[in-house]
Design brief:
This protein is mostly helical and 455 residues long. It has one domain: Up-down Bundle (Amino acid/polyamine transporter I). Helix content is 77%, strand content 0%. The chain contains 17 helices and no strands. Helix 1 packs across helix 13, helix 3 packs parallel to helix 9 and helix 9 crosses helix 17. The structure holds 4-fluoro-L-phenylalanine (PFF). 4-fluoro-L-phenylalanine binds next to helix 1, helix 2, helix 5, helix 9 and helix 13.
C-alpha cells in the first residue's frame, strides 16, 4: 500500500536529508529575523520561550510532518489525502496541504524581497561601497535601497530565478546538488564569523543579552511571536518539511533525524545571535533596531573593524546561501504537486511557480516605495504577509497536522512509520502531539485574541 519511493526521487542517504532539511530550516529566519525579534522582545526571556516552543511544539510536529510525507510519498496536498484515506478518513484533509501551499506563496513573496537586499549587500560589500561609513550613512544606503523600486526589482527577480533553476533540476539534480555544495560552505562561513566575533572583545555582553532571563520583559504578544517563529524557523506548518520527508529513505529513523535538524537550526540561530550582538555592542549600537539590525547596524560595525570589509562580504554571502536553500524548500511542495497532479515537467512547474511568486513579491516590494500607503489592518503588504504567515497560518497549519496525526491516523500507522527504538519515546511523542502541541498553540492564540479584544 505505501510506496517505496516518490516519483520525484529520493535523497542519496540520511545525511543528505538532514542537510537538505537543515537548509530549509536555516535561513533568513535564523540570521535576520531571530536576532532582531529577540532584540525587540527583551532578549533572554524571549529566547527561553522560543526554546520551549521548539522542543515541545516544533520537534513533535516536525516528526509528524516527516511521517506523513514519507507515508504518502507525494506532495503535501496529496500525501495528506492519501494518509487520510489509509486511516479511513475523508480526503478533505488535503485542505491543510492547500493552506500550506498558499502560506508558501505568501512567505516566498516577502522572503525573496529580503533575499534581494542580501544580494545587493553582497555586491555592495564586494565592491567596497561600505568602507568607512557611519550609522547615518548606513541608514541612508538602506533607506535609499528600499525607496528604489527598480533596483529592488532587479535583485528580487534574480533571486526568484536562482530558485527556479534549482527547482527545475528536480530532487537529485537540483535540490540535492544545491544542498551538497551550499550547506558545507554555510557551516564553514558561520564558524569563521563566530571566531571573528568572539575576538571582538564584547562576546560576554552578547552572551548576556541572549541568555539573561528577565521575566518582566515578556508579554503575551512576545510569546505568540516566539511560537510563530518556532514554526517559521523550522519550516513547519506549510509543507516544506513534509515534501522533503517524502524523499526520505524508508529505514532512516525519523526521531533522531528530526532532533538533529532542530538542534542544528537552533544552534545556527544562537550562533548568529552570538556573532551579531557582540559586534553591535562593540560599536555601541542598539540591539533593538528592528528589521534594519542586519542591514544598517552590521555594515557600520563591519566598516569600523579590522578586516570588516572581507568579513562583511563573507557574512552576507552566508546569509545569501541560507536564504537560497530555504526558498527552494518553499517552492518544492507546489512544484511536486504540479508535476504529480497536472503532469507538468519540472521546468514548466518551476516557470509557473516562479512567475506567481515573482508577481506576489511585487506587493511586498512596493511596500517600501510605490505602494507604501496600501495598508491592510494598518500594516503594509510586507508586514501583513509576514504577520499573517508566521503568526497565524503556520501555527494553524501545525495545529491541524498535530490533530490529524495525533487523532486521525491510526496508532499502528504512526508507530510503524516512526519505529522508535524505545516504547516510552513513542508514548511521549504521542502524548505531546495529541495534547501538548495543539493546546499550546490554542492557548497562545486565545490569549492573544483576548488581549487584543480587551485592549
Ligand atoms: N525556515 C526558513 C527560515 O528560517 O528562514 C524560512 C521558511 C522556509 C519558512 C520554508 C517556512 C518554510 F516552509
Amino acid at each position: 500500500m505505501h510506496k517505496k519511493q516518490s516519483i520525484h526521487g529520493a535523497w542519496a542517504n540520511r545525511w543528505i536529508f538532514i542537510l537538505a532539511a537543515t537548509g530549509s530550516a536555516v535561513g533568513l529566519g535564523n540570521i535576520w529575523k531571530f536576532p532582531y525579534i529577540a532584540g525587540e522582545n527583551g532578549g533572554g526571556a524571549f529566547v527561553l520561550v522560543y526554546l520551549f516552543c521548539i522542543l515541545l511544539v516544533g520537534v513533535p510536529i516536525m516528526m509528524a510532518e516527516v511521517l506523513v510525507g514519507r507515508r504518502g510519498r507525494q506532495s503535501p496536498i496529496n500525501s495528506m489525502r492519501e494518509t487520510a484515506y489509509e486511516a479511513g478518513h475523508h480526503g478533505r484533509w488535503a485542505s491543510v496541504g492547500w493552506m500550506g501551499a498558499l502560506a508558501g506563496f505568501f512567505i516566498f513573496s516577502f522572503y525573496s524581497v529580503v533575499a534581494g537586499w542580501v544580494l545587493y549587500y553582497i555586491a555592495g560589500m564586494g565592491s567596497g561601497q561600505f568602507i568607512d561609513i557611519g550609522s547615518e550613512q548606513a541608514g541612508q544606503i538602506f533607506n535609499n535601497l528600499l525607496a528604489d523600486a527598480e533596483t529592488l526589482l532587479i535583485w528580487h527577480t534574480l533571486f526568484v530565478v536562482m530558485v527556479m533553476v534549482v527547482i527545475a533540476g528536480g530532487v537529485n539534480k537540483g535540490l540535492e546538488r544545491a544542498t551538497r555544495v551550499l550547506m558545507p560552505l554555510l557551516f564553514v562561513l558561520l564558524f569563521v564569523l563566530l571566531v571573528y566575533s568572539a575576538n571582538s572583545g564584547y562576546f560576554a555582553e552578547g552572551w548576556d543579552f541572549l541568555f539573561h532571563f528577565e521575566p518582566e520583559a515578556l508579554s503575551w504578544n512576545a510569546v505568540l511571536v516566539a511560537l510563530g517563529h518556532a514554526f517559521f524557523t523550522l519550516s513547519l506548518g506549510m509543507g516544506s518539511i513534509m515534501a522533503y520527508g517524502s524523499y526520505m529513505g524508508k529505514r532512516d529513523s525519523i526521531g533522531g533525524t528530526v532532533l538533529t535538524i532542530a538542534a542544528l537550526d537552533t544552534l545556527v540561530a544562537l550562533i548568529a545571535g552570538l556573532a551579531i550582538f557582540p559586534i553591535v555592542f562593540a560599536n555601541q549600537l542598539d540591539p533593538g533596531a528592528g528589521p534594519g539590525l542586519m542591514f544598517i547596524t552590521l555594515p557600520v560595525a563591519f566598516s569600523q573593524m579590522a578586516g570588516g570589509q572581507v568579513f562583511g562580504f563573507l557574512f552576507f554571502l552566508m546569509v545569501g546561501f541560507a536564504a537560497w536553500t530555504s526558498a527552494i524548500s518553499l517552492m518544492e511542495p507546489g512544484a511536486a504537486w504540479l508535476v504529480e497532479t497536472l503532469g507538468l515537467s519540472r521546468v514548466r512547474a518551476s516557470i509557473l511557480l516562479g512567475f506567481i511568486v515573482w508577481a506576489l513579491g511585487l506587493l511586498a516590494l512596493g511596500s517600501f516605495n510605490v505602494t507604501a500607503d496600501w495598508l491592510v489592518f494598518g500594516m503594509t503588504a510586507f508586514d501583513f504577509l509576514d504577520f499573517l504567515t508566521a503568526n497565524i497560518m503556520l501555527p494553524l497549519g501545525g495545529f491541524f497536522v498535530a490533530l490529524f496525526v495525533g487523532w486521525y491516523l491510526t496508532r499502528e500507522m504512526t508507530e510503524d512509520e516512526l519505529a522508535l527504538r524505545w516504547p516510552l519515546a513513542y508514548e511521549a511523542w504521542r502524548f505531546t502531539i495529541r495534547y501538548i502541541a495543539p493546546s499550546a498553540v490554542a492557548v497562545i492564540f486565545a490569549l492573544n485574541l483576548y488581549q487584543k479584544l480587551a485592549a
